[in-house]
Write a structure and sequence with these properties.
Blueprint (H helix, E strand, L loop, with lengths): L4 H24 L8 H10 L1 H17 L4 H20 L6 H26 L7 H10 L5 H31 L2 H4 L8
Organism: Butyrivibrio fibrisolvens
GO molecular function, one term: transmembrane transporter activity
Protein name: Energy-coupling factor transport system substrate-specific component
Length: 187
């Protein structure tokens, strides 16, 4: 992927969307994260590299501006952005395909998130609701990792489904030049 000004501008805007969404979810203690709308926008419009890069940069910025957990979970975001780029870039985006493709995006990333949450943080994250659920489930047969994985899978799926449906709706109304453009050589 050649990085020209248009692509870098889209990635920068997508990073800003991720940061704003993350801060809203953190301040309101929402059970979803809202930190991947920009990642999905970049993945849908520019592909896997842009999706992964957007998640990484957004996570690092959120991490140094108040949510240290975001730095570690940005790895999961990168994985989601890359997979979403492969599954959604220039592909059919009807509601049914979005349902199952979102699951394919979320499953491996939720496993990675559960590992990060379990082994680095003992089931504690900046999301109060999910931390409570993970701690409650850790007292069942699921134990800590199972509780973290189940919680991540459900919350990630809902979060990414909302993001993907929103982005798919936005992409439909964007001018074709925003999505289908060729990199021009300097004249």
């Amino acid at each position: 992927m050649k990085y020209n000004v248009k692509k870098l501008t889209i990635i920068a805007a997508a990073v800003a969307i991720n940061i704003v969404g993350s801060k809203i979810a953190l301040v309101l203690s929402l059970p979803i994260f809202l930190d991947s709308i920009g990642t999905m926008l970049a993945a849908f419009t520019l592909g896997p590299v842009a999706g992964g890069l957007t998640a990484l940069v957004g996570g690092l910025i959120c991490g140094v501006t108040g949510d240290v957990y975001a730095i570690y979970f940005s790895l999961s975001g990168v994985l989601m952005g890359v997979i979403a780029g492969f599954l959604f870039r220039n592909k059919k985006k009807d509601p049914v395909s979005i349902l199952w493709k979102t699951f394919l995006v979320v499953l491996p990333a939720s496993m990675l998130s559960a590992c990060i949450e379990t082994f680095l943080f003992g089931g504690i994250t900046s999301a109060v609701f999910t931390t409570f659920v993970v701690q409650a489930l850790s007292q069942t047969a699921l134990k800590l990792f199972g509780g973290a994985f189940l919680t991540q899978l459900v919350t990630d799926y809902v979060d990414k489904l909302v993001a993907n449906l929103l982005v798919a709706a936005c992409v439909k109304v964007l001018p074709s030049g925003f999505i289908d453009y060729k990199t021009r050589t300097a004249e």
